[in-house]
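Support request, priority: normal
Reporter: lab tech (M.K.)
Component: structure prediction queue

Hi team, I submitted a job for Lipoprotein from Microbacterium lemovicicum yesterday, and the status page still shows it as pending. I've pasted the exact input below so you can check whether something in the sequence is tripping the parser. The sequence length should be 165 residues. Please let me know if I need to resubmit or if it's stuck on your end.
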Amino acid sequence: MRRTRTAHLCAALALTATAVFGMTACTASPTAAPAVSGSAGASAPATSGDDAGDGGQSTADACALVQQTISAATDDFQSASAEDPGAVADSMTAAAEQLTSISAQVTNDQVAAVVPELKDMFTQASGIMRSVADGDMSKVGDLTDLGTQFQETGQRFADICADNG
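Reply from support: The job had stalled in the queue. We restarted it manually and it finished. Here are the results:
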């Protein structure tokens, strides 16, 4: 019984890793994007490439802010133990909370439109991993669909950043 549970945990973690790392591969930081401070009191990033209706924020600046948050989430995920889906759930929850926290700082319309989808995916991943941590292995299959969703949304985000960065 213990061996089966461990095998399911490993499968769940592998699928989650594929989803998250697949997304970060799609969202490589724009090459011209400036470094952005993570503090809430930081001044707004430079506004190169300003477009009407975007609150004065360039696409590159908005992409850099979101990418920084996603990268921090994957760093947390990498440090989570393969035997501890609860830690993975916690890192996914933290990522969703960080995306919520920075969403007000993302004033570029195109990038801001994708942030809620990204947040929702991290929230869903957290819920699935929390269920797995609580012993509900039936949720492992949900990670496959979520992985596809991560890749599609991540690609949309990458396309926005590449087209306008």
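Confidence is low (pLDDT under 50) at residues 25-53. Residues 2-29+57-164 form one domain. Let us know if anything else looks off. Ticket resolved.
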